[in-house]
Design a protein that fits this description.
alpha/beta; Rossmann fold; nine-stranded mixed β-sheet; seven-stranded antiparallel β-sheet; 36% helix
């Protein structure tokens, strides 16, 4: 009997393909026959990530189009399979060609584990693979968009009658303490709104070993057996072995799997409200997320407050408009609440907490000033969100509510002035990230405010500031440099 498992996510770049490669490779190391099926139309197919043996294209007849055939490759004992015909077209091709492809997918004695990587699949095929699998591993990252998408995907699977084993995998976790909070908040959301309990399969840390192995076109568990990410991946295989489903009312062989997929792909996909998934949806699982709204959190979670894309001078102009607009909004809301008898909020007093907060924001302002003093204004993105932390990790912020400001600046590297400004802070820590990243981190002594700056030559400069909210949520604009670049 073959254990069929689909590795999926609701957003791209969650790490599905790397997970499939390394999980299958560890299964082979443990003496099992393992294979991966992937969509050749994926933006980063397995064959582009690994230095594999020359692929063999299996054709059914002499006049078969080469791109329609089955592609079989191998990597350190793992069979890697794909078909030139995308899954959603399988019901439309000639029965003889389809039967031959199905026949050549299997090996003589069958596989012990067959993993399906849904990267690049259209939504209908992605859902069909999930519904036909004994087990679905839903990959989620700490990003809010990934979590919203995961909820939407679970909701659609529930509406369309998925009966297998669904588990959650949190990938690319930067701070281990965060994974517990992410899972607790997400699982409570799923339980409250969908009535489902989704177990946690495990968490995999963010690790530069993955990117380094990808540059070498090898699996990270093969090149870096002692890396933290490798330990996390091995623990996942242990969890999968412990949780093997005893019974699943679906396909148990690959021949049954393909026939089931053909049937499921042709069935309508129901979305919330009785809406059907359109056949002309874009080839990305985000098409599902875009059509499924996630519920508002009953308990405080992460709420996006503001997004901006432009230049620093444009942000300054936006700040001026916001100051006026937010003032009107605050006055209106005060009037609304006064009508219900609620008391108005008292103004904040300039105590020590306010001074510590002001120091952090002034440091950010000086950083922005240093980074953007160039001839051409640098484009930047800003996202402001309110979020809650519930962990008590002594190396991180205290539990509570925070305003998080995330800047992404298209500057190639930090200026020397910015480096000097950061190193002047006595409590600053400096570390190396993936590739050539340099990471600066600063937490105030009371663990109420936090600043991180990532200097990445490939992706620009990324800055995050977490500022503790002592009372109710209140959007406060950060002070910006007075001397702005021309333009």
């Amino acid at each position: 009997m073959t254990r069929i498992m689909t590795i999926t996510s609701a957003v791209p770049a969650a790490g599905k393909t790397q997970l499939a490669i390394n999980l299958a490779l560890e299964q082979v190391r443990r003496g099992r026959q393992s294979a991966i099926f992937y969509a050749r139309e994926s933006a980063s197919p397995i064959t582009a990530l690994l230095d594999i043996q020359a692929p063999v294209t299996l054709l059914r007849r002499e006049d078969d189009a080469r791109e329609r055939g089955l592609l079989r490759s191998g990597y350190q004992g793992v069979d890697i399979l794909s078909c030139g015909t995308p899954l959603h077209e399988w019901p439309l091709i000639q029965a003889e060609l389809r039967a031959g492809c199905i026949r050549d997918m299997d090996v003589q004695e069958g596989y012990d584990d067959f993993l399906i990587d849904t990267s690049g699949m259209d939504p209908r095929s992605q859902l069909a693979c999930c519904r036909a699998s004994e087990a679905v591993t839903l990959v989620m990252t700490p990003e809010p968009g990934s979590q919203a998408g995961a909820f939407a995907l679970i909701r659609v699977l529930q509406l369309n009658g998925y009966t297998g084993s669904l588990s959650l995998l949190i990938n690319k976790v930067r701070y281990p303490a965060d994974s517990k909070e992410i899972y607790e908040n997400f699982s409570q959301l799923v339980l409250d709104h969908l009535g489902l309990t989704v177990p946690l399969l495990g968490c995999v840390p963010a690790d530069e070993a993955v990117a380094n192995a990808q540059l070498a076109r090898q699996a990270c568990t093969a090149l870096y057996p002692d890396a933290p990410v490798t330990a996390g991946l091995f623990a996942l295989v242990d969890a999968l072995d412990e949780g093997r489903a005893e019974f699943f009312p679906g396909p148990q062989t690959l021949a049954d799997l393909w026939q089931t997929l053909i049937t499921l792909i042709q069935q309508p996909v129901t979305l919330p409200g009785g809406v059907l998934l359109e056949d002309d949806s874009v080839v990305a699982s985000s098409a599902i997320v875009n059509q499924v709204a996630t519920p508002a959190h009953d308990e405080p979670g992460t709420t996006e407050l503001l997004k901006f894309s432009g230049t620093l001078s444009g942000l300054a102009a936006t700040q001026g408009r916001l100051r006026h607009t937010m003032g009107l909004l605050r006055a209106d809301l005060d009037a609304f609440m006064a009508a219900t008898g609620d008391a108005t909020l008292a103004p904040a007093t300039p105590d020590n907490e306010a001074l510590r907060r002001q120091r952090m924001t002034l440091l950010l302002a000086r950083l922005l000033d240093e980074i953007t003093i160039v001839d051409t204004p640098q484009p930047l993105r800003l996202q402001v969100s309110e979020t809650r932390l519930s962990n008590e990790d002594p190396s991180w912020l205290l539990a509570g509510r925070y305003l998080k400001y995330s800047f992404t600046i298209a500057a190639p590297v930090l200026t020397e002035g910015a480096h000097a400004l950061l190193r002047a802070e006595e409590t600053l820590s400096v570390s190396s990230g993936s590739g050539d990243e340099t990471i600066y981190e600063l937490i105030d002594a009371q663990r109420h405010h936090y600043l991180s700056v990532i200097d990445d030559p490939l992706n620009g400069v990324r800055i995050q500031v977490w500022l503790k909210v002592a009372t109710g949520p209140e959007l406060k604009m950060l002070p910006l440099p007075q001397q702005l670049p021309a333009g």
